[in-house]
Amino acid sequence: MGIDLKGLDDQQLAAITKAVYKEQNKAKRKERDRRLRNTKMLLQNYRRLRTHIQIEPGNEELTLKYERENGEVIRFDELDKYHAKSRSLLKYLDNILAVYKAECKQGDEIDWRRYQVIDKLYLSTTKLSLSEIALFYDKDRSTIDSDKRRAINDISVMLYGMDALNDIIQSW
Description:
8 helices; flat; 172 residues; mainly alpha; 0% strand
């Protein structure tokens, strides 16, 4: 099943081509944004994921209460799968972050600050805001925000490889 383009003039063909091109670009942008957002979302939820894998499923009292109240049976094999996935993801992320930390330590002061911004915002037990970090480093908040974005891009490349790098290049 195809479209017969023979009866269309040049203006109509140009309009169709432009619309198709626009939709393709929109789809590519959405895919690019999704990967970069995933890195940020992963970092934003790092502490919650840590907590998630530390709490083992199977508290019988809570399970029975939930099942009585909601009329649903909890399948622990499914919960165990979620925990296993979370543990694997965090192990991979922790390895990436360790390499990123080592890379930043070997770099200059700005590189190290970028890692510290990510650590203070998302990883450490004490969570600081961008403004608090800016005060700590005696920098403008926009500088710290820029450090954060750059670090997330760097971590995205380490997590997703060439796809993330292409996304970053295309967003320039």
